[in-house]
Each structure stands twice: as C-alpha cells, then as structure tokens.
Amino acid sequence: MRQMSGYLIGLALLLAGQTAQAGAACVVVKKLGDSLAIEWVAGEDESVANAIEKAKARLREQGWHKKYQDAHPQANTNLPHAHAVIVQTDYKSAIGKPRTSYGCGYSAGSAAQAEQAALKDLRNYSWGWKPEFGYKVLKKFSY
Question: Is the N or C terminus of the chain more exposed, i.e. has fewer CB atoms within 10 Å?
C-alpha cells in the first residue's frame, strides 16, 4: 500500500508538470526604423517559439527577407487563453520622414487591457510616436 501511494504521488506530480503549450507572438519587419510588415500567430496549441517561427516563415513567404529588412519578434506571451490586440500608426518622425509602427498586446483580463498593452508595446518600439498621432486597431481577437 505504501509503495502504491508513492507511485500515485509521483504520477500526480508528473502530470501536474505537463501543462499544454499555448501562446502567441507577433513579428515585425523593419528597415531603418520604419515598420514594413507584421505577422502574428496565436493559439492554444502554439508555443511562443513555434509562433515566432511560423510568423517569420509567413513573412519570408510574402517576400520580406531582403537586405536590411530585419524581422524580429516584438511581443509574445505564453498565456493559455488571452485577448490580443494589434495596433498600427502612421506618422511623421521629428525630421519629417513618414513612419509606420505597430504594437501588439495580450491580456488574460480583457480586450481593453490588451489594447493598452499594445499601445505600451508601440511606444517601446517607436520612440518617436506620441499618443496625439493616433492609431488604429488592426486586429482584435481572442484565443
């Protein structure tokens, strides 16, 4: 009996440590500070690493792999279920150059919280952007 209870405890600990992978990532292609394209992958059956690789592959398939085009993950999460919001803004830099920038946000709580996270992400990656420049919600979804 003692041996059986030890086995059951070990099995319970093993199963508790095996959580399903879930996550999301968005990848942005930039050239000289300007965002050129964005892709995102999210789902209950996605790990963050797989989501990043799938998003990068989609961008390559679209032709975003030329010299000086840098595709990098901008935001990701391993939340098993989340609201996700992708925002885009078009504005002029301090020296008058047109710029496009994106922000990605995730929240287990609400779409509004995900949108606030996307704006924070936008600000972190686009130092020249100011809230008065405005933005549009490109995509809003849950997984």
Answer: N
